[in-house]
Amino acid sequence: KMLQRCGLRFVQRAHTLSCALPTLARRHMALGRPIVKDPLPTTPLNTWVSSMPLGHRLGMMELDPTVFGADLRKDILQRVVVYQRAMWRMGNAKVKGRSEVRGGGKKPWAQKGTGRARASSIRSPIWRGGGVVHGPVPRDWSIKLPKKVRRQGLRVGVSAKYAQGDLIVVDDVNVPTGQESDLLEALQAHGIEGKTFIIGGDDVPKTLYDAARELPHVKVTSHFSLNVYDMLDHPTLVMDVAAVRGLEKRLSKLEGDLRAFSIFVEKEEESDMK
What 3-state DSSP class applies to 156? Predict the structure, then answer.
């Protein structure tokens, strides 16, 4: 029986080693040569561009495939969301310990001879009105995350919106007046319902901020303040052409002439004017 047990163990170990050999060989080969990265995509993506107030389609525009065509990595989104929520924590909770509570400097009664339990201070944690043991103190909850991971989180977020059909590109995010009704009519013209995240260019019109100020389901910001948490919290993402180009300028992996993507909105407008 002892020999049989030893033989069975040997067979099991040999089988495990034989299964692990291909993996060890692949690791050895990977260490012996440089890792070849997949080539960057250069074929542009296409999307419709519509007018903001009326919702009419003006033409097509090309999108950077390295920004709006990234792989959908849920792990990257999770890491960035945890990073953002940790950065937003204030960390200012504070309670007083026994040395910080007012009073308690005198010993309440003698150590011996009274028949009562010994006590050193009326501000002891076991007393009512005493200090708190191991209570919260001000601290920094922020964590560190590499910049390349944060930038990749933005690429994955906008790529997910584009792949799901939740990305709407408009020529301009301006509204005629700063009234809520104008903004709601513009969103209804595009068939948008529910929470919406509107991204403008470098300078977002003040009328848009005023129109969305009292709308809890609409958030407005520039492309510099675009973040993963708000993209996941709002099902619909609305961006104007300036915001798209500004985001591509910051996040594109292409260089030189490969970044020269065309936009046909101007051509459509010129043809209509003629």
Answer: helix
